[in-house]
From TrEMBL:
Protein name: Sugar isomerase
Signal peptide per UniProt: none
Highest taxon, organism lineage: Bacteria
Gene Ontology molecular-function annotations: carbohydrate derivative binding; isomerase activity
CDD domains: SIS_GlmS_GlmD_1 (cd05008), SIS_GlmS_GlmD_2 (cd05009)
Organism: Sulfobacillus acidophilus
PROSITE patterns named in the record: SIS
Entry's Gene Ontology BP terms: carbohydrate derivative metabolic process
Domain named SIS: residues: 23-165, 185-327
Length: 341
């Protein structure tokens, strides 16, 4: 089998899973009070996106890594009424332990997983099970975007946000074309192997930037990092050379600030990719390559925004002779069972 063939297939197949999410009646936001959202690795980055989105919509929601509950349970969960535990497999030790601790503390626990046989389901009060979105790969790809789509769907329904629901429908309508276009653009960018990749994103894109950097690290074992666009000027900026690729996940509400960072970066490297909606670019001659998201509200476009970052990790791995289907030193499930009681 050709290296990376499974991951490539899963990246391309994501729109089918998103369509199924939108047709699902399972995903409902019915959590009481203050909400704590937790996960590990990619699932934690998803929690960050969910928290940023929820805060923008007026909810009282916070994201922390699951390890915080394990290391200091009382401090981590005090003051919260509900806990969301995200785990693709539902088998990860930190996820199971976090759910148990939250239940002991009297919290309402929602488990979000892609495994209908997950041990996590034995502990939670409520569950969203997206078994059709499981990647069956080491790296999380379709599972991340599909679970994000589920959260977006639930939050839009909860707020009776007609514009948000329409944006999600529009996202799915543009998805297949965008996935293909993103693959072509990234492939061309990666013709010359980069020294490093930097991914910049703020607000609802910060967790996505972190996830993109992780995908590069997992699949290629090369050097990638994520920062907020303005934070990038405080230190990391100094190391950029023309051998580096910088990806900016732009949002129209931040465009004036992000554009200045991009223009400054163009003095260091021409290998710039901006992923943003048409409004971000309107009336400006910005440097680098432009990958246009659909002309919809930025807030809901996260599942698409991560796709070029998935291709980035995939192509970097292939370019350097590695196999994205079998990343070095990684497994599908992290088992720290010595800590589970």
């Amino acid at each position: 089998m050709q290296a990376g063939s499974v991951v490539r297939e899963v990246i391309n197949a994501q729109p089918d899973a998103w369509t199924r999410v939108l047709a699902s009646s399972q995903v409902q936001w019915d959590l009481p009070g203050r909400v704590l959202c937790v996960g590990s690795g990619t699932s934690y980055y998803l929690a960050l996106v969910v928290a940023a989105l929820g805060q923008r919509l007026g909810l009282d929601i916070t994201a922390i890594p699951a390890q915080n509950i394990i290391l200091d349970a009382e401090e981590a969960v005090t003051g919260f009424d509900s806990v969301i535990v995200i785990s693709r497999s539902g088998e990860t030790s930190e996820a199971i332990w976090s759910a148990r601790i939250a239940k002991k503390q009297g919290k309402v626990v929602l488990g979000v997983t892609c495994n209908d046989a997950a041990p996590l389901l034995q502990t939670v009060d409520r569950a969203w099970i997206l078994d059709y979105a499981h990647d069956h790969t080491v790296v999380m790809v379709r599972s991340f975007t599909s679970m994000l789509m589920a959260f977006e769907q639930a939050l839009a329904r909860h707020g009776q946000n007609a514009a948000g629901l329409a944006a999600l429908e529009g996202l799915v309508g543009h998805a297949q074309e965008f996935v293909a276009q993103a693959g072509e653009i990234v492939r061309a960018m990666m013709e010359r192997t980069p020294r490093r990749v930097y991914i910049l994103g703020a607000g609802v894109r910060h967790g996505i930037a972190l996830e993109g950097a992780l995908k590069c690290l997992e699949m290629s074992n090369e050097n990638a990092a994520a920062y907020g666009p303005l934070e990038f000027r405080h230190g990391p900026w100094g190391s950029v050379t023309d051998d580096d690729v910088v990806v900016l996940l732009g949002q129209t509400r931040y465009a004036s600030h992000e554009r200045e960072v991009l223009r400054d970066l163009s003095e260091r490297t021409q290998r710039l990719l901006t992923v943003a909606s048409p409004e971000w670019f309107r009336g400006n001659d910005d440097p680098g390559i432009h990958l246009l998201l659909p002309d919809l509200d930025d807030l809901w476009l996260g599942p698409l925004a991560v796709v070029p970052l998935q291709w980035l990790g995939y192509d970097w791995a292939i370019k350097t002779g590695r196999d994205p289907d079998a990343p070095k030193n990684l497994t599908q499930v992290v088992d720290l069972s010595y800590g589970i009681h």
